[in-house]
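__Record contents__

***
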Amino acid sequence: MNEVSLKKLIQGLFLLLAVSLALPLQAQSLGDIPASQRERLLPQLEAATQASSASEADAAASEAQSNTNRQTGTYGPILTEDQKAELTPFGAGLFEGGFRGLRSDGLNPDYRVLPGDQITLRLWGAMELDRVLPVDAQGNIFIPSVGPVQVEGVTHAQLDAIVKSAVRKVYPDNVSVYTNLQGVQPVAVFVTGFVNKPGRYVGVPSDSVLYLLDQASGINPDLGSYRNITLRRDGKVIAELDLYDFILKGDLQHPQLQDGDTVFVERRGPAITVLGDVGQFHVFELKDGPLMGARLTEMAPLLPGVSHALIRGKRGVEPYSGYLRLAQFKATALADGDEVIFLADQRADSLVVQLEGAYLGRSYYVVPKGTSLHELLNEVAVNPEETAYESISIRRKSVAERQKEALDESLRRLETTYLGASSSTAEESAIRAREAELISQFVREARQVEPNGRLVVAHQGKLVDIRLQDGDVITLPQRTDSILVSGEVYIPQSLVYVPGRAVSDYIEAAGGFSQHADDDHILIARQNGEVRDAGEVPLRPGDQILVLPKVETKNLQIASTVTQILYQIAVATRVALDL
């Protein structure tokens, strides 16, 4: 292929891509661009299509492969790097709240008095006394004229009653008693094992083990156990703690801390990675014993509708995978290192579709899968004088997504083509800078556009019978005698339809073209969702006349690209985006 032929082929490919993105999704032809432009482009389009069909197919296949989230030789989705970074042990969030800065004063009602604590005692009446009494090593406070009173192990709530009882044994009458736990003796506790910063940390006896673990910067996420934590005193285990019980049930009971206690975090037990249709991906730790799927489903926050579980891992040295119904999975033994992907893999036998516009009866219908548009409409009652049944259309989510993808691709190409180009002179550079600012603003506004996903199913008063999809919104438009004039006119408004009146007459009645109007690009949007050039179709009641803005640039390539994008937006939204 010589250089001239190659150049023509490349031009043809770019032309094909630009025109295809400008076409509305309801059309498979060039019928929605002006006739003059269509006649000029059609020969080049056909030639480019024949020369490039094979290469386009290869490119499409390559792009589809690059966009997939699966890899050859694997089962199930492959996590992105961001998802891998977010994959944390279940329970790791306990140490992200920062309760390191919160200190307990130990004066809660359940606090039990220990040697070294300070108690304020006031007596008045037949005997006067106002002192701060320490709790001695035997657990007593010594009250003059009364003697020692055992208070070690007494709760803060019980302290006042115990002291009053002891005083009234000596002074039964005319003595009033007041007690208050003024301060508690701090304790130093060792936190060790698989924590991020093992060490000796100071707290108060009533502190929770969680406070001390947070002081040690939390449990090591790769090695530490959230389910096997022990509190040790004098070489003996006095409490075994499971943080899953705290997370799932709010239960975390352990004895009051004493000076010299040790909080020890054991090595993490068998771990299962949970992905798929769950509230959040996590690594779940299972305690020793039979590792059954039922135990995992009790902890993992499954989303509604989950029906299957995909297991992959190893059994010995051999790779293992299994795809089970949820009931089977619960009775299946798991192994350390397994990855479980929960999936909602039930195929619904029915569809839910919605009606909007002018109709009689209910708005939602549940129909069997495979129901066609005609079959549904046979069940819908309408008033022929109120409903323009010949102009029915469908709003479909998948169509809106394709429209959005096409628009985003066109905008990306516009930015790449223009904003990345260089300038040869200072004057050209200044002009391009001003145009670049306008184009950037236009791209920002255009990216905010939300296509309506309108699927045209009516043509010349007849409805194409198509299969319905779940979530379809079927529009039965209200019969009207008005014409809506919008876009680049001075007074956008609705006007009464008059047979024989031309498009220009309605535009004049709306104040005429604005200074930004492109009088060569006027569209007619029908009630059935079809969008056509104003010079190609006669007006009908219910039509919308849409005047597009003029692209103010001397760069013909940019003007052509922006004009095509404006066509896309007008087709997808029935709105003329202002430049």
Q: What stands out?
A: The first strand starts at residue 88 and ends at 89. DSSP finds 13 helices and 28 strands in the chain. Residues 35-67 form the longest helix (33 residues). Residues 481 and 541 are 5 Å apart (CA to CA).
